[in-house]
C-alpha cells in the first residue's frame, strides 16, 4: 500500500473525549494508511487515565506541562521533551502533576493497538467506544442525575 504524504492541521483533527477533561487527537493509524499509530493526549491539571498496557511498544514524549509516569509501579517525574519507552505488556499511565495542562505525544509501533485495563483485565481496541468509556472516571455525586421523589 502506498501512503500519501500529508500535513495535518492540528486544529482540524477530531477530538476523542476520554472523560475528566482528558482529550486525545489521532495523527496516524491503519485507516489513514500508516504503519504506526500516533497522536497526542491532553490532560487537565490532576488528569490521568487508568493503569493499562498494550499489545505493542509505546514511545511517549511530554510536549508541555509536567507529568508523572507510572511504569511497572515506578513513578518518574517528566518535563517537556522527556521521553518514556515502554515495551509491550508493561503496566503504565501518565498523571498531570503540574499547574497547567499537560500534553503527551505517543507512538505505537503497530496499527492494531489494544489497551488492557489492569483493574478489570478487559482488553479493547485502541480509541474504540469501549476504550473511551472505560477511561472515564466513575460518576461522583455531582455527576449523577438528581432523583426526585
Tag the structure with descriptive keywords:
149 residues, mainly beta, Jelly Rolls, 6-stranded antiparallel β-sheet, 1 helix, globular
Q: Would you write up a description of this structure?
A:
- The chain has one domain (14-137): Jelly Rolls, CATH 2.60.120.10.
- The chain is 4% helix and 42% strand.
- The protein is built from 1 helix and 12 strands, in the order ββββββββββββα.
- It has one helix at 129-134; strands spanning 15-19, 22-28, 37-43, 52-54, 58-64, 67-71, 74-78, 83-86, 92-96, 102-108, 114-117, 123-125.
- The strands form 3 sheets. A 6-stranded antiparallel sheet has the order 1-2-3-10-5-8. It has a 3-stranded antiparallel sheet with strand order 4-11-12. It has a 3-stranded antiparallel sheet with strand order 7-6-9, with no helix packed on it.
- A hairpin with a 5-residue loop joins β11 (114-117) and β12 (123-125).
- The chain starts with 14 loop residues before the first strand and ends in a 15-residue tail after the last helix.
- Mean pLDDT is 90; it is low at 139-149.
Amino acid at each position: 500500500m502506498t501512503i500519501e504524504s500529508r500535513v495535518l492541521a492540528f486544529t482540524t483533527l477530531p477530538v476523542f473525549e476520554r472523560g475528566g477533561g482528558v482529550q486525545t487527537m489521532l495523527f496516524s493509524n491503519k485507516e489513514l494508511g500508516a504503519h504506526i499509530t500516533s497522536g497526542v493526549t491532553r490532560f487537565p491539571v490532576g488528569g490521568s487515565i487508568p493503569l493499562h498496557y498494550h499489545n505493542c511498544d509505546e514511545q511517549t514524549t511530554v510536549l508541555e506541562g509536567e507529568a508523572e509516569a507510572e511504569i511497572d509501579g515506578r513513578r518518574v517525574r517528566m518535563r517537556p521533551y522527556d521521553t518514556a519507552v515502554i515495551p509491550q505488556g508493561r503496566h503504565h499511565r501518565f498523571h498531570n502533576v503540574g499547574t497547567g495542562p499537560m500534553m503527551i505525544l505517543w507512538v505505537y509501533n503497530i496499527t492494531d493497538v489494544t489497551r488492557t485495563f489492569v483493574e478489570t483485565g478487559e482488553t479493547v481496541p485502541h480509541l474504540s467506544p469501549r476504550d473511551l468509556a472505560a477511561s472515564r472516571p466513575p460518576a461522583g455525586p455531582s455527576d449523577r442525575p438528581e432523583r426526585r421523589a
